[in-house]
Write a structure and sequence with these properties.
The protein has 16 helices and 15 strands. By secondary structure, the chain is of the alpha/beta class. An eight-stranded parallel β-barrel has the order 8-9-10-11-12-13-14-15, surrounded by five helices. Bound molecules: acetamide (ACM) and zinc ion.
Protein backbone atom coordinates (compact mmCIF):
# COMPACT_ATOMS: atom_id res chain seq x y z
CA UNK A 1 0.00 0.00 0.00
CA UNK A 2 1.32 3.47 -0.80
CA UNK A 3 1.64 6.21 1.77
CA UNK A 4 -1.29 8.04 0.19
CA UNK A 5 -3.70 5.10 0.50
CA UNK A 6 -2.56 4.50 4.04
CA UNK A 7 -3.27 8.08 4.96
CA UNK A 8 -6.59 7.93 3.19
CA UNK A 9 -7.65 4.73 4.92
CA UNK A 10 -6.60 6.28 8.23
CA UNK A 11 -8.87 9.21 7.47
CA UNK A 12 -11.86 6.98 6.70
CA UNK A 13 -11.44 4.87 9.84
CA UNK A 14 -10.92 8.12 11.75
CA UNK A 15 -14.32 9.37 10.68
CA UNK A 16 -16.04 6.16 11.79
CA UNK A 17 -14.37 6.16 15.21
CA UNK A 18 -15.32 9.81 15.60
CA UNK A 19 -18.91 8.87 14.86
CA UNK A 20 -18.83 6.38 17.73
CA UNK A 21 -17.55 9.22 19.92
CA UNK A 22 -14.52 7.19 20.96
CA UNK A 23 -11.53 9.36 20.09
CA UNK A 24 -10.74 12.42 18.04
CA UNK A 25 -9.34 11.96 14.57
CA UNK A 26 -5.53 12.19 14.63
CA UNK A 27 -4.13 15.47 13.39
CA UNK A 28 -0.47 14.69 13.89
CA UNK A 29 2.06 17.25 12.63
CA UNK A 30 4.39 16.35 11.02
CA UNK A 31 2.39 13.74 9.13
CA UNK A 32 3.75 10.25 9.96
CA UNK A 33 5.16 8.18 7.12
CA UNK A 34 2.72 5.29 7.62
CA UNK A 35 -0.36 5.29 9.81
CA UNK A 36 -3.26 2.87 10.13
CA UNK A 37 -6.14 3.62 12.44
CA UNK A 38 -7.69 0.57 14.07
CA UNK A 39 -10.84 -0.20 16.01
CA UNK A 40 -11.05 0.98 19.60
CA UNK A 41 -9.16 3.24 21.96
CA UNK A 42 -6.65 3.22 24.79
CA UNK A 43 -7.35 5.38 27.83
CA UNK A 44 -4.74 6.72 30.23
CA UNK A 45 -5.84 6.48 33.85
CA UNK A 46 -4.35 6.91 37.30
CA UNK A 47 -3.11 3.30 37.29
CA UNK A 48 -1.43 3.41 33.89
CA UNK A 49 2.18 2.30 34.19
CA UNK A 50 5.06 3.45 32.02
CA UNK A 51 7.40 0.52 31.50
CA UNK A 52 10.98 1.37 30.61
CA UNK A 53 14.38 -0.26 30.40
CA UNK A 54 17.60 1.39 31.56
CA UNK A 55 18.09 2.91 28.10
CA UNK A 56 14.59 4.45 27.88
CA UNK A 57 14.32 5.69 31.45
CA UNK A 58 14.91 9.30 30.46
CA UNK A 59 12.18 9.21 27.81
CA UNK A 60 9.80 7.51 30.27
CA UNK A 61 10.42 10.22 32.86
CA UNK A 62 9.86 12.89 30.23
CA UNK A 63 6.54 11.31 29.20
CA UNK A 64 5.36 10.88 32.80
CA UNK A 65 6.24 14.48 33.62
CA UNK A 66 4.62 15.84 30.47
CA UNK A 67 1.35 14.04 31.23
CA UNK A 68 1.35 14.55 35.00
CA UNK A 69 0.23 18.18 35.16
CA UNK A 70 -2.75 18.13 32.78
CA UNK A 71 -4.00 14.69 33.84
CA UNK A 72 -3.22 14.99 37.53
CA UNK A 73 -1.98 11.37 37.40
CA UNK A 74 1.21 10.36 39.14
CA UNK A 75 2.30 7.72 36.65
CA UNK A 76 4.16 4.74 37.95
CA UNK A 77 7.46 4.30 36.13
CA UNK A 78 8.56 0.66 36.21
CA UNK A 79 11.87 -0.62 34.95
CA UNK A 80 11.57 -4.00 33.33
CA UNK A 81 12.96 -5.66 30.25
CA UNK A 82 10.16 -8.27 30.38
CA UNK A 83 7.19 -6.11 29.59
CA UNK A 84 5.46 -8.49 27.17
CA UNK A 85 2.17 -9.13 28.92
CA UNK A 86 1.39 -5.94 30.84
CA UNK A 87 -1.96 -4.19 30.53
CA UNK A 88 -2.89 -0.55 31.13
CA UNK A 89 0.70 0.28 30.32
CA UNK A 90 2.93 2.21 27.93
CA UNK A 91 6.03 0.24 26.99
CA UNK A 92 9.07 2.13 25.75
CA UNK A 93 11.65 -0.18 24.21
CA UNK A 94 14.86 0.14 22.23
CA UNK A 95 15.14 -2.81 19.87
CA UNK A 96 18.01 -3.47 17.51
CA UNK A 97 15.86 -5.17 14.87
CA UNK A 98 14.16 -1.86 14.07
CA UNK A 99 17.39 -0.45 12.70
CA UNK A 100 15.71 0.03 9.30
CA UNK A 101 13.89 2.97 10.94
CA UNK A 102 17.18 4.86 11.20
CA UNK A 103 18.50 6.99 14.07
CA UNK A 104 15.22 8.84 14.72
CA UNK A 105 12.46 6.49 13.52
CA UNK A 106 9.99 4.54 15.62
CA UNK A 107 7.05 2.17 15.58
CA UNK A 108 4.05 3.03 17.74
CA UNK A 109 1.25 0.53 18.28
CA UNK A 110 -1.72 1.63 20.35
CA UNK A 111 -4.04 -1.23 21.23
CA UNK A 112 -6.96 -1.32 23.67
CA UNK A 113 -4.93 -2.52 26.63
CA UNK A 114 -1.51 -1.04 26.01
CA UNK A 115 0.75 1.24 24.04
CA UNK A 116 3.92 -0.23 22.59
CA UNK A 117 6.80 1.93 21.40
CA UNK A 118 9.73 0.28 19.69
CA UNK A 119 12.63 2.13 18.15
CA UNK A 120 16.30 1.55 17.44
CA UNK A 121 17.35 4.60 19.50
CA UNK A 122 16.26 6.74 22.42
CA UNK A 123 15.56 9.57 19.95
CA UNK A 124 13.07 7.34 18.14
CA UNK A 125 11.36 6.50 21.44
CA UNK A 126 11.20 10.20 22.23
CA UNK A 127 9.56 11.01 18.88
CA UNK A 128 7.02 8.23 19.39
CA UNK A 129 6.14 9.93 22.70
CA UNK A 130 5.64 13.20 20.81
CA UNK A 131 3.24 11.46 18.42
CA UNK A 132 1.40 9.94 21.38
CA UNK A 133 1.18 13.43 22.89
CA UNK A 134 -0.50 14.69 19.72
CA UNK A 135 -2.94 11.75 19.68
CA UNK A 136 -4.20 12.79 23.13
CA UNK A 137 -6.80 15.54 23.54
CA UNK A 138 -5.41 19.08 23.14
CA UNK A 139 -5.86 19.65 26.88
CA UNK A 140 -2.70 17.57 27.34
CA UNK A 141 -0.84 20.82 26.61
CA UNK A 142 -2.45 22.59 29.54
CA UNK A 143 -0.15 24.00 32.19
CA UNK A 144 -2.85 23.40 34.81
CA UNK A 145 -4.65 20.25 35.93
CA UNK A 146 -7.82 19.82 33.88
CA UNK A 147 -11.08 18.18 34.84
CA UNK A 148 -13.65 16.25 32.84
CA UNK A 149 -11.25 15.04 30.16
CA UNK A 150 -11.05 11.37 29.22
CA UNK A 151 -7.43 10.80 28.22
CA UNK A 152 -8.15 8.64 25.24
CA UNK A 153 -6.10 7.90 22.15
CA UNK A 154 -7.29 5.95 19.13
CA UNK A 155 -5.89 2.50 18.47
CA UNK A 156 -3.36 3.01 15.75
CA UNK A 157 -0.26 1.58 14.16
CA UNK A 158 2.39 4.04 13.05
CA UNK A 159 5.76 3.47 11.46
CA UNK A 160 7.61 6.69 11.03
CA UNK A 161 11.00 8.21 10.29
CA UNK A 162 12.23 11.61 9.12
CA UNK A 163 13.04 12.59 5.56
CA UNK A 164 15.91 14.86 6.68
CA UNK A 165 18.30 14.62 9.61
CA UNK A 166 18.55 18.43 10.12
CA UNK A 167 15.25 20.03 11.11
CA UNK A 168 16.39 23.29 12.57
CA UNK A 169 15.34 26.68 13.82
CA UNK A 170 17.61 29.70 14.20
CA UNK A 171 17.03 32.08 17.08
CA UNK A 172 18.95 35.32 17.30
CA UNK A 173 19.86 36.65 20.75
CA UNK A 174 22.92 38.13 19.01
CA UNK A 175 20.66 40.99 17.91
CA UNK A 176 17.80 40.93 20.37
CA UNK A 177 18.28 39.06 23.59
CA UNK A 178 15.94 36.17 24.40
CA UNK A 179 15.60 35.03 27.99
CA UNK A 180 16.54 31.59 29.25
CA UNK A 181 12.89 30.74 30.00
CA UNK A 182 11.79 31.84 26.56
CA UNK A 183 14.48 29.75 24.90
CA UNK A 184 13.46 26.66 26.88
CA UNK A 185 9.84 27.18 25.88
CA UNK A 186 10.86 27.23 22.22
CA UNK A 187 12.92 24.08 22.68
CA UNK A 188 9.82 22.41 24.14
CA UNK A 189 7.70 23.34 21.15
CA UNK A 190 10.43 22.36 18.70
CA UNK A 191 10.50 18.92 20.31
CA UNK A 192 6.72 18.63 19.99
CA UNK A 193 7.15 19.01 16.22
CA UNK A 194 10.18 16.67 16.09
CA UNK A 195 12.62 19.47 15.27
CA UNK A 196 16.14 18.68 16.35
CA UNK A 197 18.60 21.54 15.76
CA UNK A 198 18.57 24.89 17.53
CA UNK A 199 21.00 27.23 15.79
CA UNK A 200 21.82 29.88 18.37
CA UNK A 201 23.05 33.08 16.73
CA UNK A 202 24.87 34.38 19.78
CA UNK A 203 27.03 37.23 18.56
CA UNK A 204 26.62 40.30 16.39
CA UNK A 205 25.57 43.67 17.81
CA UNK A 206 25.00 41.78 21.08
CA UNK A 207 27.56 39.35 22.50
CA UNK A 208 25.17 37.02 24.28
CA UNK A 209 27.54 34.50 25.87
CA UNK A 210 29.89 34.90 28.81
CA UNK A 211 33.54 34.24 27.94
CA UNK A 212 35.64 34.05 31.10
CA UNK A 213 38.89 35.07 29.44
CA UNK A 214 37.34 38.21 27.95
CA UNK A 215 34.94 39.64 30.54
CA UNK A 216 34.82 42.89 28.59
CA UNK A 217 32.79 41.13 25.85
CA UNK A 218 29.72 41.22 28.02
CA UNK A 219 30.15 44.88 28.94
CA UNK A 220 26.92 46.00 27.33
CA UNK A 221 27.94 49.67 27.48
CA UNK A 222 30.51 49.01 24.79
CA UNK A 223 28.23 47.24 22.32
CA UNK A 224 26.92 48.87 19.17
CA UNK A 225 24.49 51.64 20.05
CA UNK A 226 20.91 51.10 18.86
CA UNK A 227 19.81 53.52 16.19
CA UNK A 228 16.38 54.81 15.34
CA UNK A 229 16.65 53.05 12.02
CA UNK A 230 17.09 49.75 13.87
CA UNK A 231 14.13 50.51 16.09
CA UNK A 232 11.95 51.34 13.10
CA UNK A 233 12.66 47.92 11.58
CA UNK A 234 12.60 45.69 14.63
CA UNK A 235 11.03 47.67 17.44
CA UNK A 236 12.62 47.13 20.81
CA UNK A 237 16.17 45.87 21.21
CA UNK A 238 16.85 43.85 24.34
CA UNK A 239 20.43 43.50 25.43
CA UNK A 240 21.77 40.78 27.62
CA UNK A 241 23.85 37.63 27.76
CA UNK A 242 23.82 34.08 29.06
CA UNK A 243 26.27 33.13 31.78
CA UNK A 244 28.16 29.91 31.17
CA UNK A 245 25.93 28.26 33.76
CA UNK A 246 22.85 29.43 31.81
CA UNK A 247 24.34 27.93 28.66
CA UNK A 248 25.02 24.59 30.37
CA UNK A 249 21.47 24.54 31.69
CA UNK A 250 19.91 25.26 28.28
CA UNK A 251 22.17 22.78 26.46
CA UNK A 252 21.23 20.04 28.96
CA UNK A 253 17.55 20.96 28.70
CA UNK A 254 17.73 20.69 24.92
CA UNK A 255 19.65 17.40 25.02
CA UNK A 256 16.87 15.81 27.09
CA UNK A 257 14.53 16.77 24.25
CA UNK A 258 16.91 15.48 21.56
CA UNK A 259 17.64 18.99 20.36
CA UNK A 260 21.27 19.74 19.55
CA UNK A 261 22.30 23.38 20.00
CA UNK A 262 24.71 24.76 17.43
CA UNK A 263 26.25 28.01 18.68
CA UNK A 264 27.19 30.67 16.16
CA UNK A 265 30.16 32.91 16.86
CA UNK A 266 30.15 35.31 13.90
CA UNK A 267 33.35 36.11 12.02
CA UNK A 268 34.91 37.91 10.22
CA UNK A 269 31.96 40.33 9.74
CA UNK A 270 28.88 40.99 11.85
CA UNK A 271 31.04 41.31 14.95
CA UNK A 272 30.32 44.81 16.12
CA UNK A 273 29.77 43.99 19.81
CA UNK A 274 33.16 42.23 20.02
CA UNK A 275 34.90 45.02 18.12
CA UNK A 276 33.23 47.66 20.29
CA UNK A 277 34.78 45.91 23.30
CA UNK A 278 38.13 45.13 21.66
CA UNK A 279 38.60 47.73 18.86
CA UNK A 280 42.23 46.71 18.47
CA UNK A 281 40.98 43.56 16.70
CA UNK A 282 39.47 45.59 13.85
CA UNK A 283 41.62 46.86 10.99
CA UNK A 284 43.83 49.71 12.26
CA UNK A 285 42.38 52.27 9.87
CA UNK A 286 38.81 51.53 10.91
CA UNK A 287 37.34 55.01 10.68
CA UNK A 288 34.66 54.48 13.27
CA UNK A 289 37.24 54.15 15.99
CA UNK A 290 37.75 57.88 15.87
CA UNK A 291 34.10 58.84 15.45
CA UNK A 292 32.15 57.20 18.22
CA UNK A 293 29.19 59.50 17.60
CA UNK A 294 28.72 57.90 14.20
CA UNK A 295 28.72 54.36 15.47
CA UNK A 296 25.57 52.62 14.48
CA UNK A 297 24.61 49.20 13.33
CA UNK A 298 24.95 49.87 9.65
CA UNK A 299 28.32 51.60 9.54
CA UNK A 300 29.80 50.01 12.64
CA UNK A 301 29.61 46.60 11.10
CA UNK A 302 33.27 46.16 10.26
CA UNK A 303 35.32 42.95 10.27
CA UNK A 304 37.98 41.43 12.45
CA UNK A 305 41.33 42.28 10.91
CA UNK A 306 42.55 39.23 8.99
CA UNK A 307 46.11 40.55 8.93
CA UNK A 308 46.44 40.69 12.71
CA UNK A 309 47.46 37.45 14.46
CA UNK A 310 45.85 38.76 17.65
CA UNK A 311 42.48 38.27 15.91
CA UNK A 312 43.13 34.54 15.61
CA UNK A 313 44.50 34.30 19.14
CA UNK A 314 41.31 35.95 20.43
CA UNK A 315 38.96 33.80 18.37
CA UNK A 316 40.76 30.60 19.29
CA UNK A 317 40.52 31.50 22.98
CA UNK A 318 36.83 32.28 22.63
CA UNK A 319 36.16 29.07 20.69
CA UNK A 320 38.09 27.04 23.27
CA UNK A 321 35.54 28.10 25.90
CA UNK A 322 32.62 27.60 23.51
CA UNK A 323 33.73 24.03 22.77
CA UNK A 324 33.62 23.21 26.47
CA UNK A 325 29.99 24.34 26.68
CA UNK A 326 28.52 22.77 23.55
CA UNK A 327 28.85 19.08 22.66
CA UNK A 328 27.68 19.75 19.08
CA UNK A 329 30.15 18.31 16.55
CA UNK A 330 29.51 21.39 14.39
CA UNK A 331 30.19 25.00 15.39
CA UNK A 332 28.83 27.86 13.30
CA UNK A 333 31.39 30.49 12.40
CA UNK A 334 29.11 32.84 10.46
CA UNK A 335 31.05 34.08 7.45
CA UNK A 336 28.23 36.15 5.94
CA UNK A 337 28.25 39.75 4.76
CA UNK A 338 31.84 40.73 5.46
CA UNK A 339 31.88 44.50 5.11
CA UNK A 340 33.26 45.19 1.69
CA UNK A 341 36.19 47.55 1.32
CA UNK A 342 37.53 47.50 4.89
CA UNK A 343 40.10 44.80 4.20
CA UNK A 344 40.97 46.46 0.89
CA UNK A 345 42.02 49.62 2.71
CA UNK A 346 43.87 47.85 5.55
CA UNK A 347 47.67 47.61 5.32
CA UNK A 348 47.75 44.53 7.57
CA UNK A 349 45.14 42.67 5.53
CA UNK A 350 46.89 43.61 2.30
CA UNK A 351 50.21 42.41 3.74
CA UNK A 352 48.55 39.08 4.60
CA UNK A 353 47.21 38.76 1.06
CA UNK A 354 50.71 39.28 -0.29
CA UNK A 355 52.46 36.99 2.17
CA UNK A 356 50.02 34.14 1.58
CA UNK A 357 49.95 34.56 -2.21
CA UNK A 358 46.21 35.29 -2.23
CA UNK A 359 44.45 36.98 -5.12
CA UNK A 360 41.95 39.18 -3.34
CA UNK A 361 39.77 39.77 -0.26
CA UNK A 362 37.52 36.80 -1.06
CA UNK A 363 40.56 34.56 -0.86
CA UNK A 364 41.54 36.33 2.36
CA UNK A 365 38.15 35.36 3.79
CA UNK A 366 38.76 31.78 2.67
CA UNK A 367 42.18 31.90 4.41
CA UNK A 368 40.47 33.19 7.56
CA UNK A 369 37.82 30.49 7.58
CA UNK A 370 40.28 27.70 6.77
CA UNK A 371 42.56 28.83 9.59
CA UNK A 372 39.65 28.70 12.05
CA UNK A 373 38.55 25.35 10.63
CA UNK A 374 42.05 23.93 11.16
CA UNK A 375 41.98 25.04 14.78
CA UNK A 376 38.54 23.54 15.38
CA UNK A 377 39.44 20.27 13.65
CA UNK A 378 42.42 20.02 16.00
CA UNK A 379 39.84 20.13 18.82
CA UNK A 380 37.59 17.54 17.19
CA UNK A 381 34.95 19.93 15.82
CA UNK A 382 33.82 20.83 12.32
CA UNK A 383 32.56 24.15 10.99
CA UNK A 384 29.33 25.29 9.41
CA UNK A 385 29.08 28.72 7.79
CA UNK A 386 26.75 30.87 5.68
CA UNK A 387 26.79 30.90 1.87
CA UNK A 388 29.60 33.48 1.56
CA UNK A 389 32.18 31.01 2.86
CA UNK A 390 32.20 29.58 -0.68
CA UNK A 391 33.77 32.84 -1.91
CA UNK A 392 37.48 32.39 -2.43
CA UNK A 393 37.22 28.61 -1.87
CA UNK A 394 35.28 26.51 0.62
CA UNK A 395 37.20 25.12 3.59
CA UNK A 396 37.73 21.37 3.04
CA UNK A 397 35.43 19.96 5.73
CA UNK A 398 32.91 22.79 5.95
CA UNK A 399 29.14 22.41 5.99
CA UNK A 400 27.34 25.18 4.14
CA UNK A 401 24.22 26.94 5.35
CA UNK A 402 22.69 28.18 2.14
CA UNK A 403 20.71 31.42 2.56
CA UNK A 404 21.37 33.00 -0.86
CA UNK A 405 20.83 31.35 -4.24
CA UNK A 406 20.52 27.54 -4.10
CA UNK A 407 23.18 27.31 -6.87
CA UNK A 408 25.87 27.61 -4.18
CA UNK A 409 24.26 24.77 -2.29
CA UNK A 410 24.25 22.61 -5.41
CA UNK A 411 27.90 23.30 -6.15
CA UNK A 412 28.92 22.59 -2.56
CA UNK A 413 26.87 19.38 -2.31
CA UNK A 414 28.14 18.16 -5.67
CA UNK A 415 31.67 18.65 -4.30
CA UNK A 416 30.78 16.46 -1.31
CA UNK A 417 30.02 19.15 1.30
CA UNK A 418 27.03 18.84 3.60
CA UNK A 419 24.45 21.61 3.20
CA UNK A 420 21.62 23.00 5.31
CA UNK A 421 18.99 24.88 3.33
CA UNK A 422 17.79 28.27 4.62
CA UNK A 423 17.02 30.00 1.31
CA UNK A 424 15.96 33.39 2.63
CA UNK A 425 12.90 33.88 0.38
CA UNK A 426 11.48 30.62 1.72
CA UNK A 427 12.90 30.38 5.23
CA UNK A 428 13.35 33.84 6.80
CA UNK A 429 10.62 34.18 9.37
CA UNK A 430 11.33 37.89 9.78
CA UNK A 431 9.55 38.29 6.43
CA UNK A 432 5.89 38.82 7.19
CA UNK A 433 3.04 36.57 6.09
CA UNK A 434 2.57 38.62 2.92
CA UNK A 435 6.12 38.06 1.70
CA UNK A 436 6.49 34.55 3.11
CA UNK A 437 3.06 32.95 3.29
CA UNK A 438 2.30 29.77 5.17
CA UNK A 439 1.72 28.01 1.86
CA UNK A 440 5.12 29.17 0.59
CA UNK A 441 6.75 27.68 3.69
CA UNK A 442 4.81 24.46 3.21
CA UNK A 443 5.77 24.18 -0.44
CA UNK A 444 9.49 24.76 0.15
CA UNK A 445 11.52 21.92 -1.33
CA UNK A 446 14.86 21.69 0.49
CA UNK A 447 16.56 19.45 -2.07
CA UNK A 448 17.41 21.77 -4.96
CA UNK A 449 17.44 20.66 -8.61
CA UNK A 450 20.79 20.13 -10.29
CA UNK A 451 22.40 17.73 -7.83
CA UNK A 452 24.38 14.77 -9.09
CA UNK A 453 22.78 11.56 -7.72
CA UNK A 454 25.35 10.94 -5.01
CA UNK A 455 25.03 14.53 -3.72
CA UNK A 456 21.41 14.31 -2.56
CA UNK A 457 22.51 12.81 0.74
CA UNK A 458 24.54 15.96 1.44
CA UNK A 459 21.38 18.07 1.72
CA UNK A 460 21.00 17.54 5.45
CA UNK A 461 17.72 19.40 5.76
CA UNK A 462 16.28 22.81 6.40
CA UNK A 463 16.34 25.61 8.91
CA UNK A 464 13.95 28.56 9.15
CA UNK A 465 15.61 31.61 10.72
CA UNK A 466 14.20 34.50 12.71
CA UNK A 467 16.45 37.53 12.74
CA UNK A 468 16.38 40.55 14.94
CA UNK A 469 12.90 40.71 16.40
CA UNK A 470 12.29 41.07 20.12
CA UNK A 471 11.01 38.16 22.11
CA UNK A 472 7.39 39.34 22.29
CA UNK A 473 7.09 39.29 18.47
CA UNK A 474 8.39 35.73 18.06
CA UNK A 475 5.18 33.71 18.47
CA UNK A 476 3.31 35.50 15.70
CA UNK A 477 6.28 35.30 13.33
CA UNK A 478 7.29 31.71 14.06
CA UNK A 479 3.86 30.07 14.38
CA UNK A 480 2.21 28.42 12.61
CA UNK A 481 4.93 28.60 9.95
CA UNK A 482 7.19 26.38 12.06
CA UNK A 483 4.53 23.64 11.85
CA UNK A 484 4.79 23.80 8.05
CA UNK A 485 8.59 23.58 8.15
CA UNK A 486 8.40 20.69 10.60
CA UNK A 487 6.34 18.73 8.10
CA UNK A 488 8.61 19.65 5.19
CA UNK A 489 11.60 18.41 7.18
CA UNK A 490 10.08 15.21 8.49
CA UNK A 491 7.34 13.80 6.23
CA UNK A 492 7.87 11.97 2.94
CA UNK A 493 7.79 14.34 -0.01
CA UNK A 494 4.82 12.62 -1.65
CA UNK A 495 2.78 12.71 1.57
CA UNK A 496 2.79 16.50 1.53
CA UNK A 497 -0.73 17.78 0.90
CA UNK A 498 -1.54 21.43 1.50
CA UNK A 499 -5.29 20.97 2.02
CA UNK A 500 -4.81 18.05 4.36
CA UNK A 501 -2.17 20.05 6.28
CA UNK A 502 -4.50 23.01 6.66
CA UNK A 503 -7.20 20.77 8.13
CA UNK A 504 -4.79 19.27 10.64
CA UNK A 505 -3.30 22.66 11.45
CA UNK A 506 -6.68 24.15 12.20
CA UNK A 507 -7.23 21.50 14.85
CA UNK A 508 -3.71 22.25 16.10
CA UNK A 509 -4.67 25.78 16.93
CA UNK A 510 -6.23 24.40 20.10
CA UNK A 511 -2.92 22.85 21.10
CA UNK A 512 -1.00 26.07 20.48
CA UNK A 513 -3.64 27.92 22.49
CA UNK A 514 -3.12 25.53 25.39
CA UNK A 515 0.66 25.94 25.19
CA UNK A 516 0.10 29.68 25.24
CA UNK A 517 1.59 30.43 21.82
CA UNK A 518 0.24 33.64 20.35
CA UNK A 519 0.31 32.31 16.78
CA UNK A 520 -0.80 34.20 13.70
CA UNK A 521 -4.34 33.23 12.73
CA UNK A 522 -3.25 32.64 9.17
CA UNK A 523 -6.19 33.63 6.93
CA UNK A 524 -5.76 30.59 4.68
CA UNK A 525 -6.48 28.33 7.67
CA UNK A 526 -8.49 30.33 10.17
CA UNK A 527 -11.04 31.77 7.76
CA UNK A 528 -13.98 33.55 9.27
C1 LIG B 1 22.32 36.42 6.65
O1 LIG B 1 21.09 36.61 6.52
N1 LIG B 1 23.15 37.46 6.63
C2 LIG B 1 22.86 35.09 6.84
ZN1 LIG C 1 42.91 44.41 8.52
Amino acid sequence: MTIRTLVLSAFVVGVSTMASGAAPKPTVIPQPEKMELREGTFTFGPKTTIVVAADTCREGEYLAKMLATPTGFDFDLRESSQSGGCTDCVILRIVADKSHLGPEGYELTVSKDRVLVEAPTAAGVFYACQTLRQLLPAAVESECPTVGIVWTVPCVWIEDKPRYSWRGLMLDPGHNFLTKEFTKRYIDVMACYKMNRLHWHLTDMNWAIEIKKYPELTNIEKWTPITNRWRRTYGKCNRGFYTQNDVREIVAYAAKRHVVIIPEIEMPGHSSAALGCYPELACPNWEMKTKPAKRNYWNYRTNYCAGNDKTFEFLENVLSEVIELFPSPLLHIGGDERRGGDWKRCPLCQARIKAEGLKNEDELQSYFVKRIEKFLLSRGRRIIGWTEIVEGGLAPGATLQSWLKPEHAVTAANQGHDVVMSTHGNCYLNYDGGRLSLEKCYSFEPTPPGLIPEAAKHILGLEPCLWGFPQHRHDELVFPRLCAFAEVGWSPKDARDWNNFKTRLKAHGRRLDEIGINYRRDPTVWTK
